[in-house]
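Residues determine shape. We examine one folded chain.
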Amino acid sequence: MLKKVGILINGGDAPGLNAVIRAITRTAERNQVECYGFLDGFNGLLKNNYVRLDNDPITSGILHKGGAIIGSSLNANVFNYKVIENGKEVYKDLSEKCVQNLKEDGIDCLFTLGGDSTQKSARDFSLRGIHVIGVPKTIDNDVACTDVTFGFNTAVSVATESLDRLHTTAETHNRIMVLEVMGRYAGWITLESAIAGGADVALLPEIPYDMDKVVEKIQARQRAGKNFSVVVVSEGAFPKGGSMSIKDTREGGKGVINIQLGGAGDIVAKELEKRTGLVARNTTLGYMQRGGTPSATDRILSTKYGAKAMELALEGKFNVLTVLKNGKLDYVSLEDVVGDNKEIGAVEGGTEDSNMKTVKMDDDLIKTARDIGICLGD
């Protein structure tokens, strides 16, 4: 008999988080199930810091709001958590404390809202005897086994609007305008916004680019009398024989992302200006893609995901990820989501063992981009 459920958010914010919280809570209320939210993600779970969500005004009027009313944790790997002992930083596995808190709180199911790394941790908690149900959240759209993640549509819409605005400046001043968008290992935002925004070039992490090919594309436009171009660059894009552009590094321990990407767009803009003779300027969209009001599509998708997740809990179907497959709500085992990334506590994505969903060369979007003349740098 399901009596209490908890919600936890991990990773970067994404439009639609509050809509998921609302849908889980509303469905819980209709089935007389208590619903709690752990504040600031895994940090809140570790400290047993939570708020009650059902039958409380806290969840009223949040459908359209960006961010998350219960916060989120970033780079908080409770299987390898940084603590201070005797004045020194050390890393310890504190997952059992989280398990103990959940059991003492009487939480029958924990909903984990997050991406690849979050669902890896969810799988690891399931091996500790905790009932978990994942909901796929990331603007990068790179969670395995689902057609789309919530937050992605809004991010693409923001990027597309930005391209529309940059297009007018490019044409007015005969410039190359470069837009750097998010997408560490997956080029979904880059590809869809390039198609929707009428870009001439799209550089993805999945295709190491040849600058000669990009220059050829822009020079061909010049010969046709078009002395401007629009280029979309993923933050994870890199040239053939090169590597991703790293802005900063940190020591956050094993299992979290310890590099901060940045500069890919600037590198492309500088090289294109040097080689084409046209003025080139880069705009890095950054956190604008993640914040603010979710689109209608994301509000609906988030609500569907949240309601379905609670339905699965009521049916006793645990240790799964709520997914959308061929347009239908469904679920898959967290083991399928994790793939070969089996090591306990190893939550960082983008490794050979992780099961992230990246753009494949036979994807319809790739074919469409090539058909309409978008240069992909190859």
About this structure: DSSP finds eleven helices and 15 strands in the chain. The mean pLDDT is 93. The longest strand covers residues 4-9.
